[in-house]
């Protein structure tokens, strides 16, 4: 292996097993050498985890843990599996590898510098088309079409930056255009400010031109931050023309702001390193706090113009990793609000991440739901209430691949799935309802149609509890094979509406049963 930094690519899928074929290098000696690649991937992921904690690369962290300390992999039955993350990351890593000595045939351990590109997508994104990941990330955020759908995880990274740029620019502009004091130098007959004697002598003495060299200070929109914003917009439009036209230029207010900043700053493409270097200081003025996020995003957009997203530190890293269960939970939430009729007519209310304290302490006031009166806290993803604030059903969003197999009668639940089931039953008991379930993505095939009947998604809890029901609600995801994004999205949207309406039917029945229930003394 050469002494230069070796470019290594690790490709995997969320919750899938880690195999040796997941790792490839541009160095043939590296690929052919007898290295335990699975152990090497584990070592690389360990070192990435340490770096991401300090660099803040992982975003969209778990709502249940409340922090970014997420595992990039897990061990199960003696095998390694990728964790619940997806995205793309470029990061330098140094590892210890067995290398043949130049002077003999012996093998020595040597520190080898790797330039790692980590690409993780979901198991539903097949044929190198991240349709499903892009849809979860960008659903109701950016308008996508066949011309603008991401073709790789790298594109998704840029698309998220484009969305944040658009959103942050909209918020910032509500405060007005950013102004700051700047010094300007002029040489003309309209004196304002302080005469610059040295420059005046150099430029005007002996010229008899009536000009005076001077310097003045002005609070203006012609400043380095606005120049950076225009530079980021220009870079995005050059790279993703159709996407910018559909999502920024189509917004009259945003386009007007961009055009005004171009005129005010006299923007000319070039000198981006200098502009970025002049925007490394955080914006602390209380009037312009919204511009701080926009400043950071603009720098990230221009990261491939000579400066990393971490302000040119030697230990550069670029990219984003997303916690997929959170993406799935947010996607399901938005879909239910869109397609469940009883939520839209306000006869049923959806509560998200409802905290409930359970198992009361002796002599506690159980009417007060706080930690001082109970021992344990629970928090299901979704709790549905009727108009009288009575709980009807609890539901958890799950991305574990095993739940797809539950639709088959021959399936046996592993410990992770039984853990999900136990949690749902506890929540069902804690909220005093008879119905609970999980909602999960299901990779469809032509032979699956019989699996989605109302009878097949409902499960009786036991022979002693036939009144309670546990639901396994699948959201069908097309494979994406040999179809365009528009075709895939059209099929996905249709089945999504049908699958979400299964929840609507359950809630409508539960709401009816609650209304027909005879009240005490009635």
Q: How would you describe the shape?
A: globular
Number of strands: 19
Q: Which blocks of ≥5 consecutive residues have pLDDT under 50?
A: 60-69, 305-315
Helical content class: 25-40%
Structure write-up:
The protein is α+β, with helices and mostly antiparallel strands and 522 residues long. It is built from 16 helices and 19 strands. The strands form five sheets. It has a six-stranded mixed sheet with strand order 2-1-7-6-11-3. A hairpin with a 6-residue loop joins strand 6 (85-100) and strand 7 (107-121). Helix 6 crosses helix 10 (290-301). It is globular and about 105 Å long. It starts with 5 loop residues before the first strand and ends in a 6-residue tail after the last helix. Mean pLDDT is 81; it is low at 60-69 and 305-315.
Keywords:
single chain; 522 residues; alpha+beta; six-stranded mixed β-sheet; 16 helices; 25% strand; globular
Describe the secondary structure blueprint for this structure:
Elements (H helix, E strand, L loop, with lengths): L5 E8 L9 E3 L2 H5 L4 H19 L2 E2 L13 E4 L2 E4 L2 E16 L6 E15 L9 H8 L14 H21 L6 E9 L5 E2 L1 H8 L7 E9 L3 H16 L1 H9 L2 H14 L6 H6 L12 H12 L16 E6 H16 L1 H4 L3 E5 L3 E5 L13 E5 L3 E5 L4 E7 L4 H4 L9 H16 L4 E9 L10 H4 E5 L2 E13 L7 H32 L6
Parallel strand pairs: 1-7, 3-11, 16-17, 17-19
Antiparallel strand pairs: 1-2, 4-5, 6-7, 6-11, 8-10, 9-10, 12-15, 13-14, 15-16, 18-19
Helix pairs in contact: 4-10, 6-7, 6-8, 6-10
């Amino acid at each position: 292996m050469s002494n230069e930094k070796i470019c290594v690519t690790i490709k995997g899928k969320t919750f899938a097993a880690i195999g040796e074929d997941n790792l490839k290098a541009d160095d043939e000696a590296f690929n052919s050498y007898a290295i335990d690649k699975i152990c090497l991937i584990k070592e690389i992921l360990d070192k990435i985890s340490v770096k991401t904690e300090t660099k803040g690369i992982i975003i969209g962290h778990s709502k249940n843990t409340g922090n970014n300390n997420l595992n990039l992999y897990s061990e199960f039955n003696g095998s390694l599996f990728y964790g619940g993350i997806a995205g793309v990351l470029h990061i330098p890593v140094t590892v210890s590898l067995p290398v043949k000595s130049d002077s003999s045939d012996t093998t020595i351990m040597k520190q080898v510098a790797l330039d790692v590109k980590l690409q993780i997508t979901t198991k539903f994104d097949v044929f190198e088309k991240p349709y499903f990941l892009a849809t979860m990330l960008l659903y109701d955020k950016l308008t996508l079409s066949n011309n603008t759908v991401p073709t790789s995880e790298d594109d998704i990274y840029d698309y998220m930056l484009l969305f944040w740029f658009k959103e942050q620019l909209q918020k910032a502009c509500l405060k007005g255009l950013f102004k700051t004091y700047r010094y300007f130098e002029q040489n003309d007959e309209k004196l304002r400010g302080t005469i610059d004697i040295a420059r005046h002598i150099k430029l005007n003495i002996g010229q008899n031109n009536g000009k005076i060299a001077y310097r003045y200070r002005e609070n203006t929109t012609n400043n380095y931050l606005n120049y950076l914003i225009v530079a980021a917009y220009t870079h995005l439009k050059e790279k993703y023309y159709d996407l910018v036209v559909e999502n920024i230029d189509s917004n009259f207010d945003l386009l007007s702001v961009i055009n005004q900043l171009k005129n005010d700053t006299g923007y000319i493409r070039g000198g981006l390193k200098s502009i970025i270097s002049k925007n490394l200081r955080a914006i602390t003025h209380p009037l312009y706090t919204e511009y701080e996020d926009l400043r950071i995003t603009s720098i990230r957009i221009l990261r491939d113009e000579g400066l990393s997203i971490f302000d040119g530190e030697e230990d550069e890293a670029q990219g984003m990793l997303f916690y997929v269960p959170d993406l799935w939970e947010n996607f399901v939430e938005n879909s239910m609000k869109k397609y469940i009729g009883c939520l839209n007519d306000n006869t049923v209310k959806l509560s998200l991440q409802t905290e409930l304290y359970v198992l009361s302490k002796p002599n506690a006031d159980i009417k007060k739901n706080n930690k001082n009166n109970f021992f344990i806290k629970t928090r299901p993803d979704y709790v549905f209430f009727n108009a009288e604030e009575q709980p009807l059903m609890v539901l958890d969003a799950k991305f574990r691949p095993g739940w797809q197999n539950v639709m088959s009668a021959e399936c046996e639940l592993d410990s992770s799935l039984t853990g999900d089931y136990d949690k749902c039953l506890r929540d069902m008991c804690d909220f005093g309802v008879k119905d609970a379930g999980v909602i999960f993505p299901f990779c469809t095939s032509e032979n699956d149609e019989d699996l989605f009947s109302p009878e097949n998604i409902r499960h009786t809890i036991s022979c002693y509890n036939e009144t309670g029901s546990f639901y396994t609600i699948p959201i069908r995801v097309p494979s994406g094979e040999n179809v365009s994004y528009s075709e895939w999205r059209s099929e996905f949207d249709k089945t999504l509406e049908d699958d979400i309406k299964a929840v609507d039917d359950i809630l409508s029945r539960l709401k009816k049963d609650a209304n027909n229930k005879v009240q005490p003394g009635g």
